C-alpha cells in the first residue's frame, strides 16, 4: 500500500531516463536512490560506450520543461530544420522537417545526462555508481547489488524502477517469472560511428542546421552537428551480404568503397580509415515485453521498449514515459497500486507504435528520401498540411512536433493517410497534375 | 574442426529429446554425457512436474523406429483413432482423425522417457542427475555445472547440445550474446490436470480408443486414456475473465461450474474438487528464437522451439529434430562445421510452422469441433482426400500421419486448402448440395 510520498524508491540505471525520472520523483517528495552499473560519467576516467549525440524533439523537451531544464539544455543543442541529402556525386537536396520554426535538436548524450544527474543530486537524489544488480526479487521488492569491491548486499525498497536500458538487469527477473511476454530482435544492419572534424576556427564543414543523410538504398550514412564544429557520422550498414561489414574486409576495400560511395563526406574525414577499422560495429535491437509491472517493480524507457534509432525517438519516448508517469501520480494521488497498472495499459500501445514507426523509418531514410515519387508525395502532403493544418498532419510531424498526439494515434492516423496517398499517387500523370488535385475531397476521405 | 565421431558431446537435459538424441549420437560412436537438472525419474523419490501422458504420432514413431524402440513402446501406447466430443448434456459425437488404420497414441511421458534412458545407458551414454548448468561459454564450449553438493565444475566439450526444454539454461547464453532473436509469449489460458479413475477390473469408463474433448468455445476439457484404465484430463481455461481460474474462486463455485459444464465427466470423477483445488495451474508458452547454433553449441527440441500442446506435436517435433540431425550427420559425414548451419536453416521454418499450427488448433479443438459448418467442411475435405489421396491431404493428416511432408509444407498447403474451402463453404445451400460438388474442379484449384 504505497500511498504517500515518504516511500523509498530505487531506480536502476543513471542514464537519461533514470536520471530524469529521479528528478520527477524527488520533486514529489520521494526518497530516491539511483544504482548505476557503470562508473560516474562525470569522473575523468569514464569511458563511454553509447552514441555521441541524439535528436531531442518536442516530446523530450516537454519533459525537460516540466523539470525546469529545457532552457539550459536548449542552449547546448543545435537546431536541425530539415534533412540534407547527399547523392553519390555530392549533390545536395534539402527537405524541411516541418513548418517554419519546427525543428529537432542535435544534443550531446553525455552533456544532457550530466545536466540531469547534476540537477538530481542538487535536489537530493542519491547516486551509487559501479553497482551491479545481481538479482531482483519481485515478491519482496529487494535488489541484491554487487559493489565495486565485489561485495553483495540485499536492499529492500518500497518500489523498484528498472530504467536500465535495452539490456535491463531488472527485466531479467521479469523474464524468468511466469507469464511474461518478451521479444528481442535485431535488424540485419549494424552501425559504426565516424567523424568530420571542425574547419578552421571551429567552423562547420557541412550545413550546420541540418541532419545530413547519404541515402544509398540498402544502407546509409548520417551526420549530426556538435557545438564544437565537428559532426558525428553514423554508418548504418548490413552485417552480411554485399556490400556489408563482412564483405569490405581489407583496408584497400574500405578505402575504395567509402571513397566511391560517400565522396563528399570522405573528403572531409582525414581519419576515416582509422576510425572505420578501430571503432566498434554495434548491433541494433528492438525489445518488446509485457507486463511492465510485477508487484512493486516497474520497467520504463528502453528497459520496457527498446527501439531502433531511425525516428530519433528513443530518448524522447523514454522522457515521455516519465512525464506520463508523473501525470498519473497526480491523477492517482501517488497511489502506486492503481497507477502502475494504469501506466502500463496506457503506454504499451505507444511503445509498440514507436517501435514499428522506427523500423519503418529506416527504409524511408536510407532509400525513399532519394526517390522522386516519394518526394512528390511529401510535397502533396505538405500542401494538405498547409491547407488543413489540424486535419492532415504528416506522420513525421505528428510524431516529432505534436507531443499531444500519442504515438499510437500518430501511427494509426499515419496508416490511414498513407492509404489515401497511395491512391492519390496511383493517379495517371500525377507529377503533372498534382497542383490541380481536389484537396478538399482528399481530406474528406479521412 | 569436429569431424570424426571420437568427439565428446554434452547434452543438457535428460528429457525425451535429450535421451533420444543421446542414443542416436552414441550409436554413431560419439562419447555422450547427459546432464540433467532434476533427479533421476527412475528413482523412487522422484517427483514429476510435467504432463502425464502425450500423443505420440508418426513423426515421433519414425524416430523411435530408427533407434529400435518403436515396437517396445507401441506395446505400452493406447491407439486413439479419433476425437470423441462431449456436449453440455453428455451427448457424444465422433470424428475419425484419418483413414482406417491411421491413429495417434496416448503414451505415458515417464514410461517413454525411462525406456529411452535405459536404452541410452545400455549402449554407454553417461547420465548425470541433479546437475544444474550455471553457465555456458559459447566461445570456449564449456559448461559450468553445479552438482547437488553445490560444487561448481567447469567442463570442456567438443560440442554442447541444449535439449533442456522451454526454459533452457543453455539458451540463456545465446540470449545474452549479440544478435540473437528471441521471443517468448503466453496464451491467455492455463491448464490443470484432473483424472477419471478406472472402473471395476481396470475397465475404461469412457471409450478407450479416442481422445475425448469437451469443447466449450472459449475453453475445453480433454481426456487421454492410460493403460491402467484411468484417464488423464486436462482443463484448458482462461486465467482471467469470466469464467476463468480467477473467477471461480470458491469450492462452491468450482463445484457448480464443473457440474454444469462437464456433467458426464464430473460424474466419473469422485476426486474432482480436491484435484481442482490442489493441482497446480500451469501456463502455456511459445518460444521462438534464432540462430539455434553459436560456434559449437546447438539448441534442439523445445529449447529451440517450444510450442503449445494443441496439435499434439511438441514431442513429435523434437523427435523429428533428432532424426533430421542424424540424417544430416550422414550427409555431412559427421562434419559438424557444415551440418550445424544446415540443420538450423532446414529446421527453423518447420519449427515456426508447427508453432503456428499448434496455436491455430486450439481454436479448432475448443470451439470449431462443435460447429456444424465446420463438421461439414471436414466431411467435404474427407471426400476430397478419398477421391484424391495424394493431391488433397487434409492438414491434420499431413501433420500427423505424413511424416515425409515437412511441417512448413503442411502449413503452406493447408493455408491454400483453407482458402479454397472457404470459397466452397460460401456457396449457397452447401449443406444440401455438397455431395453434388464438382470435386475434380475443386482439386484443380490447388
UniProtKB/TrEMBL annotation, chains A, B:
Specify the FAD-binding domain's residue ranges: 9-351
Question: One Pfam family, short name please?
Answer: FAD_binding_3
Q: Look up the record and name the cofactor or cofactors this protein needs.
A: FAD
Q: Which UniProt keywords apply?
A: FAD, Flavoprotein, Monooxygenase, NADP, Oxidoreductase, Pyridine nucleotide biosynthesis
What SUPFAM superfamilies does its record include?
FAD/NAD(P)-binding domain
**Swiss-Prot/TrEMBL GO biological process terms:** anthranilate metabolic process; kynurenine metabolic process; L-tryptophan catabolic process; NAD+ biosynthetic process; quinolinate biosynthetic process
Q: In the Enzyme Commission scheme, what number(s) does this protein have?
A: 1.14.13.9
Which reaction does this chain catalyze?
Answer: L-kynurenine + NADPH + O2 + H(+) = 3-hydroxy-L-kynurenine + NADP(+) + H2O
Which pathway, per its entry? Cofactor biosynthesis; NAD(+) biosynthesis; quinolinate from L-kynurenine: step 1/3
A GO MF label: kynurenine 3-monooxygenase activity
Q: Which InterPro entries match?
A: FAD-bd, FAD/NAD-bd_sf, Kynurenine_monooxygenase
Q: What does this protein do?
A: Catalyzes the hydroxylation of L-kynurenine (L-Kyn) to form 3-hydroxy-L-kynurenine (L-3OHKyn). Required for synthesis of quinolinic acid.
Q: Show the PANTHER family listed in the entry.
A: KYNURENINE 3-MONOOXYGENASE
Which family would the database say this protein is a member of?
Belongs to the aromatic-ring hydroxylase family. KMO subfamily.
Per its record, how is this protein called by name? Kynurenine 3-monooxygenase
Organism, as annotated: Chryseotalea sanaruensis
Instruction: Name the gene that codes for it.
Output: kmo
Amino acid at each position: 500500500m504505497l500511498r504517500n510520498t515518504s516511500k523509498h524508491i530505487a531506480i536502476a540505471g543513471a542514464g537519461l531516463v533514470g536520471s530524469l525520472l529521479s528528478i520527477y520523483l524527488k520533486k514529489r517528495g520521494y526518497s530516491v536512490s539511483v544504482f548505476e552499473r557503470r562508473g560516474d560519467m562525470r569522473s575523468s576516467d569514464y569511458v563511454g560506450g553509447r552514441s555521441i549525440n541524439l535528436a531531442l524533439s518536442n516530446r523530450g523537451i516537454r519533459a525537460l520543461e516540466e523539470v525546469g531544464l529545457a532552457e539550459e539544455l536548449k542552449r547546448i543543442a543545435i537546431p536541425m530544420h530539415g534533412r540534407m541529402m547527399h547523392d553519390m556525386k555530392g549533390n545536395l537536396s534539402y527537405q524541411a522537417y516541418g513548418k517554419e520554426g519546427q525543428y529537432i535538436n542535435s544534443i550531446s548524450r553525455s552533456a544532457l545526462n550530466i545536466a540531469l544527474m547534476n540537477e538530481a543530486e542538487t535536489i537530493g537524489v542519491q547516486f551509487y555508481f559501479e553497482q551491479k544488480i545481481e538479482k531482483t526479487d519481485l515478491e519482496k521488492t529487494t535488489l541484491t547489488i554487487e559493489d565495486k569491491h565485489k561485495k553483495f548486499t540485499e536492499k529492500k525498497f518500497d518500489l523498484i524502477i528498472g530504467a536500465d536500458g535495452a539490456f535491463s538487469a531488472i527485466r531479467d527477473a521479469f523474464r524468468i517469472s511466469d507469464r511474461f511476454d518478451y521479444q528481442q530482435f535485431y535488424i540485419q544492419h549494424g552501425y559504426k560511428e565516424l567523424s568530420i572534424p571542425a574547419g578552421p576556427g571551429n567552423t562547420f564543414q557541412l550545413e550546420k542546421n541540418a541532419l545530413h543523410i547519404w541515402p544509398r538504398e540498402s544502407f546509409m550514412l548520417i551526420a549530426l552537428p556538435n557545438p564544437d564544429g565537428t559532426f558525428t557520422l553514423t554508418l548504418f550498414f548490413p552485417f552480411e551480404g554485399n556490400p556489408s561489414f563482412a564483405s569490405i574486409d581489407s583496408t584497400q576495400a574500405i578505402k575504395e568503397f567509402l571513397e566511391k560511395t560517400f565522396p563528399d563526406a570522405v573528403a572531409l574525414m582525414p581519419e576515416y580509415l582509422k576510425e572505420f577499422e578501430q571503432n566498434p560495429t554495434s548491433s541494433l535491437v528492438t525489445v518488446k515485453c509485457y507486463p511492465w509491472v510485477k508487484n512493486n517493480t516497474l520497467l520504463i524507457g528502453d528497459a520496457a521498449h527498446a527501439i531502433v534509432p531511425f525516428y530519433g525517438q528513443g530518448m524522447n519516448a523514454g522522457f515521455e514515459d516519465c512525464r506520463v508517469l508523473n501525470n498519473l501520480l497526480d491523477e492517482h494521488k501517488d497511489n502506486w497500486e492503481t497507477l502502475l497498472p494504469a501506466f502500463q495499459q496506457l503506454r504499451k500501445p505507444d511503445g509498440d507504435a514507436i517501435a514499428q514507426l522506427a523500423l519503418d523509418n529506416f527504409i524511408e531514410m536510407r532509400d525513399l528520401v532519394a526517390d522522386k515519387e516519394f518526394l512528390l508525395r511529401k510535397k502533396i502532403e505538405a500542401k494538405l498540411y498547409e491547407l488543413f493544418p489540424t486535419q492532415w498532419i504528416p506522420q513525421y510531424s505528428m510524431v516529432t512536433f505534436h507531443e499531444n498526439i500519442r504515438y499510437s494515434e500518430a501511427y494509426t492516423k499515419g496508416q490511414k493517410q498513407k492509404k489515401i496517398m497511395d491512391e492519390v499517387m496511383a493517379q495517371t500523370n500525377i507529377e503533372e497534375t498534382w497542383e490541380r488535385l481536389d484537396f478538399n475531397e482528399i481530406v474528406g476521405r479521412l
